[in-house]
């Protein structure tokens, strides 16, 4: 992780921080899902099927992407699936009752969230850059603590 998040001493605070970190990561997953719609539309010239999964959208555009980006996109899908489906069962399982889970387990969970989030952000940036570089009519904006930036200007 870029900046290691300290595990709070209080079990209740450790649990609340887990919820906050996981919520932030899931929100970023939702942004990646929305971006997948844009990628699908730009590369294939038509919108993705309604309610299709991130994995289905990635698979559909795979032939249109360079080989290295195909592998990266699969990593993004895996990171998203990990956060949504497997994180809380990893590292021996999370009980979810304050005081029953060790600080070491929270450390592992926080780190796993951070690693998955880094993958999602890194690959999202790569895909956005590819779209902008190969399609001059596409504009993609990044919203961050620094404000709104047109990635064509970066």
Within the largest sheet, what's the order of strands?
A: 1-2
Broad structural category? mainly alpha
Order of helices and strands: HHHHEE
Poorly predicted runs: none
Separate helix tally: 4
Q: State mean pLDDT (0 to 100 scale).
A: 88
- How many whole angstroms does the radius of gyration measure? 18 Å
In whole angstroms, how far apart are the ends?
A: 24 Å
Shape type: elongated
Protein described:
This protein has 154 residues and is mainly α. The protein has four helices and two strands. It has helices at 11-44, 54-61, 67-86, 103-134, and strands at 141-144, 147-150. The chain has a two-stranded antiparallel ribbon. The two termini are 24 Å apart. The model has no long low-confidence stretch (mean pLDDT 88).
Short key terms for the protein model shown above:
single chain; 154 residues; mainly alpha; two-stranded antiparallel ribbon; 4 helices; 61% helix; elongated
